[in-house]
Amino acid sequence: NAGVMQNPRHLVRRRGQEARLRCSPMKGHSHVYWYRQLPEEGLKFMVYLQKENIIDESGMPKERFSAEFPKEGPSILRIQQVVRGDSAAYFCASSPQRGANYGYTFGSGTRLTVV
Amino acid sequence: EDKVVQSPLSLVVHEGDTVTLNCSYEVTNFRSLLWYKQEKKAPTFLFMLTSSGIEKKSGRLSSILDKKELSSILNITATQTGDSAIYLCAVENQGAQKLVFGQGTRLTINP
After folding, report:
1. Cβ distance of A91 and B42 shorter than 8 Å
2. How many CB atoms lie within 10 A of CB A5?
3. B38-74: per-residue pLDDT in tens?
4. What element of type H or E holds A46?
5. DSSP reduced 3-state for B83
6. Are A42 and B32 an interchain contact pair (Cβ–Cβ within 8 Å)?
7. Do B31 and A99 touch (CB under 8 A)?
8. In B8-84, where do the E strands start and end?
9. What is the pLDDT of residues B88-107, one digit of tens each?
10. What residues in A contact B32, CB-CB < 8 Å?
11. Which residues of A touch B43 (CB under 8 A)?
């Protein structure tokens, strides 16, 4: 069981470009959560998805950010027209059912740097 | 708005010392509190606490929840340099749709 796989590990984008971050959940996990971590801060919730559905996107900025979790393939967090303030570590976590008591496993993160 | 505050933000001790990390929270309809250890990459799970007063233990680490005081502590005894990390506290509400994290405590163990 490979665990939660995120790629790329590091991503550098120029201001105005698009960033696509991928998250493959653990086998058998259909719930995916995305978090953002700014330097010297804790993780901040962005969005919770269950196969093909967005359940809670209350932490997503209203513009430029979108997320999907298609029936086949990884979950994608997409950031359009990136700005310097988007530089952060983006972590995803997966679980087999809703709730931390079912096991909530984090990936190693994607570190996005906007130059 | 749900909130988690950790203290201290940073702590430096010598190998062999005992440390206590604090976490206080305000959350609507509390479900659980979790502790994670974060080194250079993914947060790794340490404990999940749901009931007040019951200590959870794993080797030199232990944790307890106080629902009356809305707080939890994480103890590490006989610290080792490998314990150096950021320790994150998070709470989950009954909706179980997300975790709310504190800022973390950066623990440094010097040999």
Report:
1. yes
2. 15
3. 998 889 999 999 989 899 999 999 999 999 999 999 9
4. strand A43-50
5. helix
6. no
7. yes
8. 10-14, 19-26, 30-38, 44-49, 56-58, 61-66, 71-76
9. 999 998 877 789 999 999 99
10. 100-101
11. 43, 91, 106
